[in-house]
Each structure stands twice: as C-alpha cells, then as structure tokens.
Amino acid sequence: MAVGIVEPGERALAASATVRRDGVAHVVNALTGLTTGGVLASWALADDALTADGAASALLVGADDDLFTRRHVAHARLYADGRLVRTDDFPGELFG
What SS3 state is found at 87? Predict the structure, then answer.
C-alpha cells in the first residue's frame, strides 16, 4: 500500500515501521517486549543517511519534535488510527 510520493532531491530519505514483512517487530519496548504504540510507520528526510535512519526509528517511539527541528529533519508519521501527519517542509504528497 502506497501512502504518498516523496521527492527527496539531494537529501537522504529513510523509513521505519513497527512490523516487518517477516512479522518480527522492528522496534519494541525493552520493558514489555511489545511494539511501540500509536505510530505504525515513519519517514525522515535529512542531509545524511545516518541522521535520516536514526530519526525514522526515533519517530516510532515519540521522540521530541524539537530534536528533529534542531537536526533539520523533515518527517511524516502514519498513526494506527489512520492519520498521516507531516512537517510543513516534508516534500511530496501524502494520500491520507
């Protein structure tokens, strides 16, 4: 299922989701062993791939948005209730 089209230009794009194709959770709560709640998938756009990848994972666990602002990371999140939320500087189009 496609949820949008992104035009990253010269920036790095990374994505993360709570469940992988093999059914194994990508990010879990270390105390409970359960998947993160609320956010199903995230996309992050940054100046380098390392920052984008780390930000995409951090978006799943509800990291403070100030972190992404300081690192100049544009991002989008797909929530379990179906909402697609993005920052104003996230390029492209979301279908939600």
Answer: coil
Element (H, E) at 12: strand 12-17
Listed as own residue / partner, the contacts of 68-71 with beta carbons closer than 8 Å and 24 or more positions apart are 68/44, 71/46
State the pLDDT at residue 75: 94
Residue 31 to residue 80: CA distance in whole angstroms: 21
AA identity, residue 2: A
Q: In terms of Cα–Cα distance, which of 11, 19, 1 is closest to 92?
A: 11
Tens-digit pLDDT profile for residues 4-53 = 888 899 999 999 988 766 766 667 777 777 777 788 889 999 999 999 99
Task: Say which amino acid occupies 96.
Answer: G
Q: Which two tokens stand for residue 66?
A: 């100030």
